[in-house]
Amino acid sequence: MEVVNALGRRKSAVARVYVSEGQGKIVINKRDLTEYFPTGILQYVVLQPLNLLGVAGQYDINVNLDGGGITGQAEALRLGISRAMLEIIPDSRHALKAAGFLTRDPREVERKKPGQPKARKRFQFSKR
Q1: Angle at 64 between CA 60 and CA 68, to 5 degrees
Q2: Count of beta carbons in the 10 Å neighbourhood of residue 64
Q3: Number of domains composing the chain
Q4: Residue 31 belongs to some domain of the structure
Q5: Residues 6+ apart with CB under 8 A from 84
Q6: What 3-state class would DSSP assign to 91?
Q7: Which residues, listed in sequence order, are joined to residue 15 by a DSSP beta bridge?
Q8: What is the largest CA-CA distance in the chain?
Q9: CA 7, CA 95: separation in Å to the nearest integer?
Q10: Which backbone phi and psi does 118 adopt, to 5 degrees?
Q11: pTM above 0.85, yes or no
């Protein structure tokens, strides 16, 4: 099997995922998964598509992550892994889609407007 690559995005985070057959190593920006995402919740989010399909120890995953915060990066990585698994195992589309792993979350940060302190917050109104 050759290397399969996929792209995942969330907020301003971009994950470029390269999947090949192996022993289940996940390397993110030349660091191990547990080192890059120290909390168990983020590790769980990243491994969700692999655990759903039952292929957790069968593929080596190499990732370039850029932009955003750690939660956005974890969810971008989940989308990238899901898209790569879809190329490797075409029958998995229904399970991944039902779990919501193939949907790109479209929410982005709203821009700050002029004459306001933030995107929606207004300066305090004074009648007199």
Answers
A1: 130
A2: 15
A3: 1
A4: yes
A5: 4, 5, 6, 17, 19, 61
A6: helix
A7: 8, 65
A8: 73
A9: 19
A10: -140, -165
A11: yes
The range of the structural domain enclosing residue 27 comes to 4-99
Supply φ then ψ for residue 77, to 5 degrees: -65, -40
pLDDT-based confidence at residue 1 (cuts at 50, 70, 90): confident
3-51 residue pLDDT tens: 999 999 999 999 999 999 999 999 999 999 999 999 999 999 999 999 9
Would you say residue 23 lies in a domain? yes
Q: Which of 120, 107, 78, 111 is nearest to 12 (CA)?
A: 107
Planar angle of CA 40, 73, 110, nearest 5 degrees = 125
| End-to-end Cα spacing for the chain | 73
Distance CA 99, CA 112 (A): 34
Q: Which of 111, 109, 55, 117 is nearest to 86 (CA)?
A: 55
111 assigned to some structural domain = no
Establish if 104 belongs to a structural domain: no
- 75-120 residue pLDDT tens: 999 999 999 999 999 999 999 999 999 999 999 999 999 999 999 9
